[in-house]
Task: inverse folding
């Protein structure tokens, strides 16, 4: 079998290719972006499948459901908060008669390396009442992804593969297997299986509920949920989930005895195995990456029969990632001490906008334009430009979720606040900024929208946006914004004063104005030039 | 045998390329490899680190624990000091001496060098000068791979082959410059051993 060195994200992509996908859809988001990047890089080598970025996670998910309906295998990938955007089709698709294997790969970001929160997608899988697999090694990412497609076709449900940052962005050797042929086009014959009218949906919901027993049977018998009992030692047992296993195993050799241990990586939770463990020990230590999903289920509301330790009782940190170090205390191990780093003061080095970044010049112009206004409100959004909150610019005040800047400025304007300015990037605007702008136009809100158009999705590595810059202005016109108040500026240092004057003029305009600040991301431009030079 | 390396630097300095070369070289020499990287927002001129673990046995954790690293390899002098508590008492710290001053409160480099020299085993490498000498400032990170090669449990031929494999797409001249940079880094590290 061929050996490859792959990131967790790449192993997932390779698993999907070898499972015979016909299509894959995604929206970029750390730590999931490399799944689609790898699929696109591999597409010419590994066969004929569609691998495309979409406007957002919802459109990606819906396209995936269409592929499944006609019988072919499909992967849809996103980051954890992307699943909030795709939640509507995702939750509902659990009711459908999924036909071609549909696998949802979602990458959570505990520690918020590059995210707005650290939500745990296992709750979503549980909410939708589907099967979720949670690999702990790159090798497992590959094999579990393949298995997820089989499970999806066996049980006619979407299956989630949950990654977290460290596995998504860590490289290891993966043994790959034989590639399975793609499914032929073969439209589902389940007439009522794709129709969520109340009458049909009630039936499909009842079917999904009655299938839960079969999902549980799978989870109980799956080798992914492995219980090792040590009859001799009853003080405590360990449940690990996800990367909790890795950090437990990193330390286990230091324990005087090997406690009973259940590792969970296939959900629904294997309740019988958990009960079996509980019968043997006085205390259960739960080490799981993410929220206390398993732990809270064990705690329940009524007093449990055994003591449960983990994040909820403070034995493990409740925020951030697990590490080989922060799981030592709960296992009764002393902390390890390295070389004392104190003494020299080391200043923090936060991320910052690149030298030459167009956002720098846009923010200079915006700050100048707003200098005469106090108070003022500048809502913003998600991308490199969110760094404009930090010194030296301190130009923006909010970041909530993709596209929220537009709706929030509209709300503030309608509440009677002026000036209300929203700042959003081109990719984020196309993702979720269009609909709130339609709202703002419809309500005649007195707001100004500044679209920072760098012709790329920069923060996640420079993926192509769904619409070229030349079409963005037409789109804004088409949404009904008065063409006299749609302005194009080029954010360069030499234009700052002129740009500030234009922005200020539009802020003073009563009604919706849109200013598009158009200049290429310097990183993406560099990459493109490098590629052209090689070719 | 296990060998854990913490790689440190500033976003844009090529920390991931260093990790990729050593990881591929180690894999081709028959070792197990796990390599954890930082992507996304932190890459924008911020502090970045990567954990690289080499072993002849199965590696379970992607992250290196405190007091466990055999080497800190840093592209920037203050960045190496952030991770000292991860270094074993007899671990080695190798760093470029060239500061990246993209923050307003950058400390006096002399004080930083002194702190680095006071460690049990440390090597300050004039990486930018050596890279210039090799033909391109952009080969600085390969100077650092060369310097690290004096300590890594991976034969030089495997590291060079990995470098060639990873940079071959960028043309013969880049590979040649990187080889020279590697050699210069290695010679310096060996001369101060």
Result:
């Amino acid at each position: 079998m061929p050996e490859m060195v792959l990131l967790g994200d790449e192993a997932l992509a390779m698993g999907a290719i070898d499972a015979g996908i016909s299509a894959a859809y995604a929206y970029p988001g750390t730590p999931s972006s490399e799944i689609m990047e790898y699929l696109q890089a591999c597409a010419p080598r590994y066969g004929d499948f569609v691998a495309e970025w979409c406007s957002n996670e919802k459109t990606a998910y819906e396209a995936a459901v269409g592929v499944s309906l006609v019988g072919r295998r499909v992967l849809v990938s996103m980051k954890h908060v992307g699943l909030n955007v795709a939640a509507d089709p995702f939750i509902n698709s659990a009711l459908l008669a999924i036909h071609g294997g549909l696998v949802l790969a979602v990458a959570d970001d505990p520690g918020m390396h590059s995210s707005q929160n650290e939500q745990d997608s296992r709750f979503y899988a549980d909410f939708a009442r589907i099967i979720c697999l949670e690999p702990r090694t790159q090798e497992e990412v590959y094999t579990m992804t393949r298995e997820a497609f089989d499970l999806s076709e066996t049980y006619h449900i979407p299956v989630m593969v949950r990654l977290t940052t460290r596995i998504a962005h860590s490289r290891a050797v993966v043994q790959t297997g034989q590639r399975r042929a793609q499914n032929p086009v073969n439209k589902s014959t389940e007439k009522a299986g794709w129709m969520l009218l109340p009458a049909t949906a009630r039936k499909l919901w009842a079917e999904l509920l009655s299938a839960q027993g079969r999902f549980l049977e799978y989870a109980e018998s799956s080798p992914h949920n492995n219980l090792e009992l040590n009859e001799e030692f009853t003080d405590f047992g360990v449940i690990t989930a996800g990367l909790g296993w890795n950090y437990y195993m990193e330390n286990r050799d230091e324990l005087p005895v090997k406690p009973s241990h259940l590792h969970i990586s296939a959900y629904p939770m294997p309740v019988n195995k958990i009960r079996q463990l509980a019968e043997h020990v006085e205390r259960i230590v739960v080490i799981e990456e993410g929220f206390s999903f398993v732990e809270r289920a064990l705690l329940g509301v009524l007093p449990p029969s055994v003591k449960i330790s983990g994040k909820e009782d403070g034995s493990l940190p409740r925020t951030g990632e697990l590490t080989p170090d922060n799981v030592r205390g709960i296992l009764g191990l002393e902390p390890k001490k390295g070389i004392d780093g104190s003494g020299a003061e080391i200043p923090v080095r936060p991320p910052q906008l690149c030298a030459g970044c167009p956002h720098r010049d846009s923010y200079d112009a915006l700050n100048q334009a707003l200098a005469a206004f106090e108070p003022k409100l500048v809502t913003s959004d998600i991308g490199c430009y969110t760094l404009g909150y930090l010194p030296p610019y301190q130009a923006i005040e909010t970041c909530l979720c993709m596209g929220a800047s537009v709706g929030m400025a509209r709300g503030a304007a309608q509440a009677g606040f002026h000036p209300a300015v929203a700042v959003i990037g081109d990719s984020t605007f196309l993702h979720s900024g269009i609909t709130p702008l339609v709202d703002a136009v419809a309500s005649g809100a007195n707001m100004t929208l500044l679209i920072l158009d760098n012709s790329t999705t920069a923060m996640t590595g420079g993926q192509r946006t769904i619409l070229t810059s030349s079409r963005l202005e037409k789109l804004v016109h088409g949404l009904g914004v008065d063409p006299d108040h749609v302005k194009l500026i080029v954010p360069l240092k030499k234009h700052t004063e002129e740009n500030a004057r234009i922005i200020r003029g539009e802020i003073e305009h009563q009604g919706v104005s849109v200013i598009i600040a158009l200049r290429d991301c310097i990183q993406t431009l560099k990459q493109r030039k490098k590629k052209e030079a090689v070719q | 045998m296990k060998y854990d390396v913490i790689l440190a630097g500033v976003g844009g300095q090529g920390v991931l390329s260093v990790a990729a070369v050593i990881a591929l070289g180690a894999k081709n020499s028959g070792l197990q490899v796990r390599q954890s990287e930082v992507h996304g927002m932190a890459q924008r001129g911020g502090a970045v680190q990567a954990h690289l673990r080499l072993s002849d046995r199965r590696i379970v954790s992607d992250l290196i624990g405190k007091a466990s690293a055999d080497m800190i390899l840093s592209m920037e002098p203050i960045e190496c000091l952030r991770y000292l508590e991860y270094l074993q008492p007899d671990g080695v710290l190798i760093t470029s001496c060239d500061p990246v001053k993209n923050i307003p409160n950058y400390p006096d480099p002399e004080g930083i060098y002194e702190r680095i020299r006071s460690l049990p085993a440390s090597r300050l490498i004039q990486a930018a000068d050596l890279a210039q000498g090799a033909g391109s400032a952009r080969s600085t990170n390969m100077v650092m791979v060369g310097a690290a090669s004096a300590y890594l449990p991976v034969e030089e031929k495997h590291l060079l082959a990995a470098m060639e494999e990873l940079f071959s797409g960028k043309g013969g001249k880049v590979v040649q410059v990187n080889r020279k940079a590697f050699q210069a880094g290695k010679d310096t590290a060996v001369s101060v051993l």
The radius of gyration of chain B is 15 Å. Chain B touches chain A through 57 residues (CB under 8 Å). The longest strand of chain B covers residues 87-96. Chain B has a mean pLDDT of 92.
